Amino acid sequence: MLRSVANRIERAVVRGEIDNSVEGRTTGWIWLLGRADPVTLDLAGDCWRDLAGARLKFRNPEATEHVELHRTQSGVVGDMTASRKCRVPVGPIEDYLEARAAGEQPAEVWKNTLYIEWFSETDGRVVIETTDFELELSDHAWRMDGDAEEAQKLANLQAMRDFLERMIDRRPPKPDRPDGVEDDEFEWEKRLKESDRLTDAYQEVLEKYMNDPDAERKEAFVMGWDGLLEAMAEKDEGRKEEEDEPVWLEDLDDFELADEEDEHPLIQEAEDLAVRAFTMLDREDERAAEVASLAGQVAAKLAGALCGDYERETGFVLALLKRCLSLQNEGLAAFAKLLEHTPEGNERRAVEALRDEFHQLRGKVSEMRRELRGP
Asked: Does the pLDDT at position 242 exceed 60?
């Protein structure tokens, strides 16, 4: 199943209410499947402007899952809006899949999505994300202006960053060592465990911001990649010198690529593939969910190996890329299982095209490992 650092509860919600009628405070009650008493929300912060100052009631006509949450949810708000945009196919799904299989951009429209997120002191990050709920919005007791909304969104980004920082639990940089001194296996295991935590975090970030026009900057901010943010700012301001070494290559001086962008091109390629997997595949199907999850994990693992502003040794990058190849092998096996249960037609051709791209990416990762190892 799809791994997630968030508690995603939309399939367990029967009905609920979010109340932001008091500025600076958001409360609520959410009834979950199989529980007589509601979960109570008491959160610092406001909703986005469409819900700020109002009460939103929502109902899920098809609750199917059971989840465990503490009865009282205290903490801070994340993004709370009924107008978050997501892309949905236009017309029959068969036409959408056929266009994807042919390598074309299928017809899509942006649709409003209910997105309710908060950061709980007991349960971490909790998310409701859906286009299927029935909604009822009250009149506004007060009105939020554009500046206040931007301030709240920045606070939400900071809350996400703080949450991920605690989850990733980065170790402080180690002092320089004498030449020829290498880390033992216990030190490498600590590093790789940190990489695994970063992988889980980045997979969630990738899915959260995939449709955001400013996704790259938001991802860098919440992941704590301040060096990458600075490089983006310098590039935007036209002050970046051509000879400057990109952030992701700072500690790999002997490894050169023709395309020296601030973000390694393989990261972008893996992100694009993961977004298509999240978008195209029906994650109600466990086989499809596994494929989408592994595609996201590969993107996250590559980001952990090749992005950021803290020191990386070549051996560490090689170890992460090896783990990435292992995930890609699992992914190809998952594609095979999915195709066994996918009938001939447009959907099968779309899955086959996605699998071929996944296989090509694996070849590029393998080639990078060969180049890093050297002769």
From this structure: no
